[in-house]
Design brief:
This protein is 88% helix and 0% strand. The protein is an all-alpha fold. Helix 1 packs antiparallel against helix 4 (49-111), helix 2 crosses helix 3 and helix 5 (114-140) runs antiparallel to helix 6.
């Protein structure tokens, strides 16, 4: 079984229903006055409970809106001050951002300069060569088994090969760098 669920009446429907009930109870003379006098009719409609409730709600909303507007106007100087402060902070941040971007660009240019690259390569080669020498010294000053010797030789040859390759690349880069320097 399917039940029909009554929907709440709209304000206009409620007012119509109330007016209809009151009109059925009114004497003919009053009905004739309502029919001929628009002021009487307006007064009748405005005195309907639904219409009065509706008008009260409208008045409350108007008062609430006015109160909100007054509060907003009271806070206007504070909000204007905060807006100005925020604007100043934003301007300062823009300046800082521009300075950072300029600095970042400078650092990037410096980190990709041939002089810096050459210095980094030479430093790395020197570090690897020192590591190879330390590996040899450590191995020579400790006792080892045959198996350890084979592992050392294999590791040393791999490390030494990387060092030699890096040394060759560094020397080649140095030669190219010197040629470009002489052209200028």
């Amino acid at each position: 079984m399917h039940y029909y669920r009554a929907q709440p009446l709209s304000t206009l429907d409620q007012a119509f229903h109330e007016a209809r009930l009151q009109i059925h109870r009114m004497p003919i003379e009053i009905l004739q006055r309502l029919n001929t006098d628009s002021t009487e009719l307006s007064h009748f409609i405005q005195t309907l409970p639904t219409i009065r409730t509706f008008e009260n709600q409208c008045q409350q909303l108007i008062e609430h809106t006015q109160q909100l507007a007054k509060n907003n106007l009271k806070r206007e100087p504070e909000l204007l001050f905060k807006r100005q402060k925020l604007s100043n902070t934003f301007a300062e941040l823009e300046v800082l951002r521009d300075q950072y971007l300029k600095y970042q660009s400078t650092v990037q240019d410096e980190s990709s300069s041939p002089t810096l690259i050459l210095a980094q390569l030479q430093s790395t080669v020197h570090f690897y060569e020192r590591s190879n020498d330390e590996m040899i010294d450590t191995f020579l000053h400790t006792s080892h088994k045959d198996h350890d010797i084979d592992l050392f030789v294999k590791k040393f040859l791999q490390d030494r090969q990387k060092t030699i390759e890096l040394r060759c690349k560094t020397d080649k880069f140095f030669d190219l760098y010197e040629r470009e320097k002489q052209k200028k």
